[in-house]
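Researcher: Structure for this, please.
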Amino acid sequence: MRRLLSSRDSDWMHKLYQYLRQQGMPVSVTERGEQLELWLHQSSYEAAAKTLIQQFKDNPELAAEPAKEKMASHSTSLSFSLLKQSGWLTRIVAVLTLLVFAAVQMYPETVLDTLKISRYFAALPYDQPWRFVTPILMHFTLLHLVFNVFWWWYLGGRIERSLGIPWLLALLLFCGITANVIQYLFNGPNFGGLSGVVYGLLGFCWIYSFNRPTPLYLPPGLIIFMLLWLVIGYTDMLWVNVANEAHLAGLLSGCFAGFVVRWLNPKMRRLY
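Model: Predicted structure, token format:
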């Protein structure tokens, strides 16, 4: 493989990548630190690739789709864009959450008894370790489900595409178990939801991208909104029961994970 160029402009790099692929160039894009790097897989294409890159620099509109193609693809672009914003783990967890919600509507007592962290108020389920995780799949209202699945897709998809499945799985388990155990210790076993994980992913992206541009960067307004929502939960102003301890524990565990992963500085991975 031969590196052709690097750039911090993700939109420009993506358009260049699309143009080169349209011309049959065997290229891919990876991330290293703050830079996106364009790689050529076969050196025999180097001269042609460099010519095409120069043509693109002179006229970036070369990558634009013809108008007819845009019209034809418009009806499917939204669904495909949603899939592109996620990975397999993001999708699997979302589907499991939807299936469990449907089961809760039909067999609430059975599902709660099967998936809640413990059947008791003073005994963690060391003999049934899956119970440390399964509460994240249970949601009891449609609003709760939609809110959590949306943020899981938005944050989890970003992390999976940027760092890979192993890192997202580690965050899911670490933040989920931490949030579940803390919520149980404070309020007992009758709770559920992805909220603790969502706040964990928020904290992770916040710290991992703090003061530097990365694909996991979140707008300050979004972080402020989520933190305000957490604080409001403690005021009893909301019309629903809120697992406040799970939210806070998830956020803090995610921030800790952000420090650790930022220090470890995982190697670049192929973006597209």
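Researcher: Any notable elements?
Model: The radius of gyration is 22 Å. The chain has two domains: 2-64, 87-264.
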